[in-house]
C-alpha cells in the first residue's frame, strides 16, 4: 500500500506539474535563490501532495460509491416494474453494437447486459465486421438462434467501425438507437431510465448518461458525473459518450456514421446530430448507466492507444464549425482535449474596461500597467471609477495615469454600492462591450481580452468569464457553481494552476450558471436591456451571480474560458470582516438570492446532483441529491394517515 501511494505521488507530480517542467523549475529556483528558495518552493509542493492524498482517498470513495449504487434491491425492481406499467410511451430501443474479434467473455458480458435489462422492449442489432475468430462467429449465431430480439449482420469484408455500425443501423427497427461497444456493458436499469426520460420529456432527441470505467475483471472505478447539456464543453470533449441514445429517424437522415472518422465516429455523429435539433431536445440522466472497459487497446485506457482518434475528432469539429459558419479554428490541447478558438472580426470593436477603486494603490499600480502593456488585438478604453479615495499615494497615482489616452478617471463620491457604481460607469462608457474588472487583478496572457471578446460575439452568448489565480498559483475562479455553501462558490478554488481538475473541467471552455464580475465581459446592449446590476437588493455581494442568472433566463449562455488568465491578488488574504451593519446587509443579500434563485441553487445544470455541496472540489456525495423512484412515488401517492 505504501509503495502504491508513493507511486501515486510521483504520478501526481509528473501529471500535475509535468516531470520535465517540474524538475527544471526546481533547478532554476536553486540557481536563483539557493537551497532556501528550493525549501520554500518545496513547502508549497508538499501542500499539494497533501491534496493529492485527499484525491487518492476520493478515488477509493468513488469505487465504494459505485458498488453501493449498483446493489439492486427487490424494492427498486418492484418500483421499476410499477413505473413501466405507468409509461404511456414504451418505444422499441435498438441497441447498436459493431464487433470485430472481441475477447469472448467480454462479448458475452456485453450481450448479457442487454438481455438482463429491466426494460424489455429492446432489440440488439449486431454487425460483425468479418471477425477471423470462429468462436466469435459461432457465439453470435448461437445468440441469434436463441433470442429473437438479437439480430446479427455478418459482413463479408472488414470495413472498420463506421461501416460496421452502419450495417447494424440498416436493420434497426426501433424509435431510438443506443450505442454499445462490444467490450462494454450497460447497467441493468439503463434502458428503464432512458424510457423514463422519453416519457418525462416528450420530443427528446438525444439522451446521454454518466459513465464509469471497468477493468478487465469487471471492477468499477472513476465515475464521471457530468453536467446537463453544455455546448461549449461538448466542443471540448465528447460529453454525449457514454451512454448515447439517438432518435433513429434523424440518425438515418444524417447518414449514420461516416467513414474516415474512425476513433471519433460517435463524436462526429453527435456533432452532426445536434445541428438538426434544439438544445431543449437534449437530455442528461445523472446516473452511471454505462461501464467503459479499461484494457490495453481501448481509448478508456488513454488516447495513446488510439492516437488517430484525436485527429478524427479535430476533423469532425472543424467540419462542424464550417457547417455552423463559425469563424474559428480547432486545437488539440496537451490534455488531449480540444479547444475551439474563435476569431475576431476584421472590424474593430471597442471594449470599455470598468474598474472601481478606493485607496488601493498597492494593487492598482500593478493592474493598470498590466492592461496597457499586455492587452493585444483589441481596442479598449479604461474607466477607473474612484469611489472616494483619500490615500495620498492612490490620489497621486490616479493623477499620473490621466496622461494615457486610453484612461478616463471618473469621480464618484457616493456611498459605496458596487452595483450602482458600475451601472453609472456604463452610462459614461463608449464601448460596444463592457468588461467589469477588479482593481486587484493583474493580466497574465496578452490575448485575455481578445479571447473573451471573440466568445462574447458568438450567437446566444450572454457573458464571458476568465480564469483567475491567487498569487500562489492556485485557482481563485474557475466559473461559479450554485448549491455548495448554500448559495454559490467558485469552481476548483484552490486547485494548482496546471491541474486539469475534475475530468479536465478546470482547463476547458464551458458554460456555467454564472461567472464572477472580478473579470466579466458582455455587450453593453444586453447589459442595458436586462437593467444592469441590482442596485436595490444587492449592494455588494452576489450582484454578478444575479446578473448572470437573469441573462440565462433570457436564453443566453454564460461561458467561462481558461484561456483568458489573470491574477486576483488581494482576495487570497482578504477576510470576510463581517460585523454589525455589514453582516446584516450580507445576510439580507444571501436571503434575497436564496429566495429569488432557489430553483437554480437546488439544481445547477452545470453541476451534478451526485457531487458534494460541501466544497468546490467535485467530490462525490452519497446519498445523491437526484430524484429517486421512492421519492417520486411518495409525491404521486402521499401518505394520508
Keywords:
alpha/beta, elongated, disordered N terminus, ten-stranded mixed sheet, about 650 residues
Task: Explain this structure.
The chain is of the alpha/beta class. It contains 19 helices and 23 strands. The strands form 4 sheets. Strands 12, 13, 14, 15, 16, 17, 18, 21, 22 and 23 form a 10-stranded mixed sheet that branches. Strands 1, 2, 3, 4, 5, 6, 7, 8 and 9 form a 9-stranded mixed sheet that branches. A two-stranded antiparallel ribbon has the order 10-11. A hairpin with a 5-residue loop joins strand 10 and strand 11 (338-342). Helix 9 (265-274) runs parallel beside helix 10 and helix 11 (361-374) packs parallel to helix 12. It is elongated. The model is unreliable at 1-12 and 14-22 (pLDDT under 50).
Short description:
With 641 residues, the chain is of the alpha/beta class. The protein contains 19 helices and 23 strands.
Task: List the total number of helices.
Answer: 19
Q: pLDDT average, as an integer?
A: 88
Low-confidence stretches: 1-12, 14-22
Oligomeric state: single chain
Proportion in helices: 25-40%
Class computed from helices, strands and strand pairing:
alpha/beta
Rg to the nearest angstrom? 27 Å
- How many beta-strand segments? 23
Overall 3D shape: elongated
Distance between the termini: 54 Å
β-strand percent reads 15-25%
Largest sheet: 10 strands, mixed
Amino acid at each position: 500500500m505504501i509503495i502504491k501511494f508513493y507511486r501515486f505521488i510521483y504520478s501526481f507530480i509528473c501529471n500535475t506539474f509535468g516531470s520535465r517542467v517540474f524538475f527544471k523549475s526546481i533547478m532554476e529556483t536553486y540557481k536563483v535563490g539557493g537551497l532556501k528558495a528550493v525549501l520554500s518552493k518545496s513547502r508549497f509542493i508538499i501542500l499539494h501532495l497533501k491534496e493529492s492524498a485527499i484525491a487518492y482517498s476520493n478515488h477509493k470513495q468513488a469505487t465504494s460509491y459505485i458498488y453501493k449504487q449498483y446493489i439492486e434491491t427487490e424494492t427498486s425492481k418492484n418500483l421499476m416494474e410499477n413505473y413501466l406499467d405507468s409509461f404511456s410511451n414504451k418505444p422499441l430501443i435498438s441497441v447498436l453494437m459493431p464487433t470485430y474479434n472481441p475477447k469472448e467473455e467480454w462479448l458475452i458480458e456485453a450481450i448479457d447486459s442487454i438481455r438482463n435489462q429491466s426494460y424489455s422492449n429492446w432489440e440488439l442489432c449486431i454487425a460483425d465486421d468479418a471477425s477471423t475468430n470462429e468462436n466469435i462467429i459461432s457465439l453470435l449465431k448461437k445468440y441469434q438462434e436463441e433470442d429473437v430480439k438479437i439480430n446479427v449482420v455478418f459482413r463479408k469484408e472488414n470495413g472498420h467501425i463506421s461501416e460496421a455500425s452502419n450495417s447494424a443501423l440498416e436493420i434497426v427497427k426501433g424509435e431510438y438507437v443506443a450505442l454499445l461497444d462490444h467490450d462494454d456493458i450497460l447497467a441493468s436499469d439503463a434502458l428503464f431510465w432512458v424510457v423514463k426520460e422519453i416519457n418525462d420529456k416528450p420530443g427528446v432527441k438525444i439522451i446521454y448518461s454518466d459513465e464509469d470505467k471497468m477493468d478487465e475483471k469487471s471492477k468499477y472505478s472513476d465515475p464521471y458525473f457530468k453536467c446537463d447539456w453544455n455546448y461549449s464543453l461538448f466542443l471540448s470533449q465528447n460529453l454525449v459518450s457514454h451512454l448515447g441514445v439517438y432518435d433513429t429517424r434523424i440518425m438515418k437522415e444524417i447518414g449514420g456514421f461516416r467513414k474516415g472518422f474512425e476513433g471519433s465516429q460517435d463524436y462526429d455523429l453527435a456533432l452532426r446530430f445536434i445541428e438538426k435539433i434544439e438544445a431543449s431536445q437534449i437530455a442528461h440522466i445523472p446516473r452511471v448507466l454505462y461501464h467503459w472497459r479499461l484494457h490495453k487497446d481501448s481509448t478508456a485506457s488513454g488516447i495513446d492507444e488510439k492516437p488517430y482518434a484525436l485527429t478524427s475528432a479535430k476533423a469532425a469539429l472543424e467540419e462542424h464549425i464550417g457547417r455552423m459558419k463559425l469563424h474559428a479554428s480547432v486545437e488539440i490541447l496537451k490534455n488531449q482535449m480540444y479547444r475551439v478558438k474563435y476569431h475576431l472580426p476584421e472590424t474593430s470593436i471597442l471594449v470599455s474596461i470598468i474598474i472601481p477603486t478606493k485607496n488601493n494603490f498597492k494593487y492598482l499600480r500593478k493592474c493598470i500597467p498590466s492592461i496597457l502593456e499586455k492587452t493585444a488585438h483589441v481596442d479598449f478604453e479604461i474607466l477607473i471609477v474612484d469611489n472616494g479615495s483619500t490615500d495620498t499615494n492612490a490620489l497621486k497615482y490616479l493623477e499620473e495615469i490621466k496622461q494615457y489616452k486610453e484612461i478616463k478617471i471618473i469621480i464618484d463620491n457616493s456611498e459605496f454600492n458596487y452595483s450602482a457604481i458600475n451601472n453609472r460607469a456604463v452610462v459614461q462608457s463608449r464601448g460596444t462591450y463592457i468588461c467589469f474588472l477588479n482593481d486587484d487583478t493583474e493580466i497574465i496572457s496578452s490575448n485575455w481580452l481578445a479571447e473573451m471578446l471573440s466568445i462574447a460575439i458568438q450567437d446566444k452568448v450572454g457573458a464571458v468569464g476568465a480564469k483567475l489565480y491567487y498569487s500562489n498559483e492556485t485557482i481563485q475562479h474557475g466559473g461559479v457553481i450554485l448549491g455548495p455553501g448554500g448559495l454559490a462558490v467558485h469552481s476548483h478554488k484552490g486547485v494548482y494552476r496546471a491541474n486539469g481538475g475534475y475530468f479536465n473541467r478546470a482547463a476547458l471552455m464551458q458554460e456555467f450558471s454564472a461567472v464572477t464580475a472580478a473579470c466579466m465581459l458582455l455587450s453593453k446592449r444586453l447589459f442595458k436591456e436586462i437593467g444592469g446590476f441590482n442596485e436595490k437588493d444587492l449592494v455588494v455581494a452576489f450582484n454578478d451571480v444575479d446578473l448572470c442568472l437573469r441573462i440565462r433566463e433570457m436564453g443566453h449562455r454564460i461561458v467561462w474560458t481558461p484561456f483568458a488568465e489573470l491574477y486576483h491578488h488581494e482576495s487570497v488574504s482578504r477576510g470576510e470582516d463581517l460585523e454589525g451593519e455589514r453582516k446584516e446587509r450580507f445576510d439580507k443579500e444571501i436571503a434575497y438570492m436564496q429566495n429569488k434563485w432557489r430553483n437554480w441553487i437546488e439544481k445547477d445544470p452545470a453541476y451534478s446532483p451526485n457531487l458534494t455541496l460541501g466544497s468546490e472540489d467535485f467530490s462525490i456525495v452519497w446519498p445523491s441529491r437526484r430524484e429517486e423512484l421512492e421519492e417520486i412515488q411518495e409525491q404521486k401517492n402521499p401518505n394520508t394517515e
